[in-house]
């Protein structure tokens, strides 16, 4: 299989630093009193996870990202959960990462604000590619 060897052209995992929905703060005090950030690792539309989910829904082939999200809106929590590939294990979330834990996190109605931040990050393709500069 042919592979691209230019780092700037290979999609990367993006670490989303979750912000407080009102204050925008990114550092929080955990139950043990330490300062932590809630950092969730996601992949975007250039990932196998995205393509697999689109195939399951039989909506692949559309290049309009907003249209894709509207067509799967009833499954948005499940979709975003499949694009989560990890999170920082620092006490911000009470479980170690797993696909099931990611889905549980997003299925909780209290976490809709987290879902919204993840959706915005996933839709921004700039988050997944290294910037390449020539000297």
Indicate the structural class.
alpha+beta
- Mean of pLDDT: 86
Low-confidence segments, ≥5 residues, pLDDT <50? none
Helix content range of the residues, please?
25-40%
Q: How many strands in all?
A: 5
What is the subunit organization of this protein? single chain
**Main sheet overview:** 3 strands, antiparallel
Distance between the termini: 32 Å
Which outline best applies? globular
Cα-based radius of gyration, to the nearest Å = 16 Å
Across the major sheet, the strand order is: 1-4-5
Number of helices: 5
User: What is the N-to-C order of secondary-structure elements (H for helix, E for strand)?
Assistant: EEEEHHHEHH
| Portion in beta strands | 5-15%
Q: How many structural domains are formed by the residues?
A: 1
Q: Helices, strands, pairings?
A:
Blueprint: E1 14-17, E2 28-29, E3 35-36, E4 39-42, H1 48-57, H2 65-71, H3 76-83, E5 84-87, H4 99-107, H5 112-123
Antiparallel strand pairs: 1-4, 2-3, 4-5
Helix pairs in contact: 3-4
């Amino acid at each position: 299989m042919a592979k691209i060897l230019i780092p700037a052209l290979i999609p990367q995992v993006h670490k989303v630093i979750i912000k407080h929905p009102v204050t925008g703060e990114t550092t929080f005090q955990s139950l043990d009193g330490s300062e932590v950030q809630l950092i969730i690792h996601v992949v975007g539309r250039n990932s196998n996870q995205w393509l697999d989910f689109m195939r399951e829904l039989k909506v692949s082939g559309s290049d309009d990202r907003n249209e894709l999200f509207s067509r799967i809106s009833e499954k948005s929590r499940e979709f975003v959960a499949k694009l989560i590939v990890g999170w920082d294990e620092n006490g911000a979330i009470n479980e170690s990462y797993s696909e099931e834990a990611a889905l549980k996190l997003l299925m909780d109605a209290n976490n809709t604000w987290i879902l919204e931040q993840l959706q915005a990050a996933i839709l921004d393709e700039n988050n997944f590619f290294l910037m390449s500069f020539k000297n």
